[in-house]
Design a protein that fits this description.
The complex is a heterodimer of chains A (111) and B (110). Chain A has 111 residues and is an all-beta fold. Chain A contains no helices and 11 strands. Chain B is globular. The chains are: A mainly beta (111), B mainly beta (110). At the A-B interface, strand 4, strand 5 and strand 10 of A face strand 4, strand 5, strand 9 and strand 10 of B.
């Protein structure tokens, strides 16, 4: 099985930077995804990491360390609309395409 | 039009009733998934299908069944609904990387 841990809740201020961590334990690691989910809506894809290092996409960046079983999502220049749940999902090389999701981190951005 | 659609969007049913949730996609993906989401528990995989002839159980398949009628259609059935199946249900598709989710079906079993 897979264990995926994320903080349950985080709060940050508009304009600031926030880092959401995700740790995992799995065999046959084959990629890590971050999704954003606004309350009552469908998750939407943010980023994908399969090799170690930082992937940058506008205000959002995602980092992966496979040896440490660790990833983080970095959100810069926070906006009120960034208030949402952020889901970390890990894929293994058995049945590629099937991912296991963490419970998500609810981020609240305050003025 | 949305790439992944789900019907119904909301449903209230009674214990013991059979109910079917439907999912259609226009993305041309072979892989389709059904998840349920409960408050604070993230997404849990019910069933998944990698092509029309391939059906696999996920982590919480008890009490559910699925049918992959075509590449574009994947339905989820609750043969005899029970109150603890009250949840938000999502269908998703993928092409081997990120998943694309439907808008969700909010199911309440009374």
């Amino acid at each position: 099985g897979q264990n995926i841990d994320q903080p349950t809740e985080m709060t940050a201020t508009e304009g600031a930077i926030v880092q959401i961590n995700c740790t995992y334990q799995t065999s046959g690691f084959n990629g890590l995804f971050w999704y954003q989910q606004h309350a009552g809506e469908a998750p939407t894809f943010l980023s994908y990491n399969v090799l170690d290092g930082l992937e940058e996409k506008g205000r959002f960046s995602s980092f992966l360390s496979r040896s440490k079983g660790y990833s983080y999502l970095l959100l810069k220049e926070l906006q009120m609309k960034d208030s949402a749940s952020y889901l970390c999902a890990v894929r293994t090389n058995t049945n590629a395409g099937k991912s296991t999701f963490g419970d998500g981190t609810t981020l609240t951005v305050k003025p | 039009d949305a790439d992944v659609t789900q019907t119904p969007r909301n449903r209230i049913t009674k214990t013991g009733k059979r109910i079917m949730l439907e999912c259609s996609q226009t993305k041309g993906h072979d892989r389709m998934y059904w998840y349920r989401q409960d408050p604070g528990l993230g997404l849990r995989l019910i069933y998944y299908s990698f092509d029309v002839k391939d059906i696999n159980k996920g982590e919480i398949s008890d009490g559910y069944s699925v049918s992959r009628q075509a590449q574009a259609k994947f339905s989820l059935s609750l043969e005899s609904a029970i109150p603890n199946q009250t949840a938000l249900y999502f269908c998703a598709t993928s092409d081997n990387y990120e998943q694309y989710f439907g808008p969700g079906t909010r199911l309440t079993v009374t």
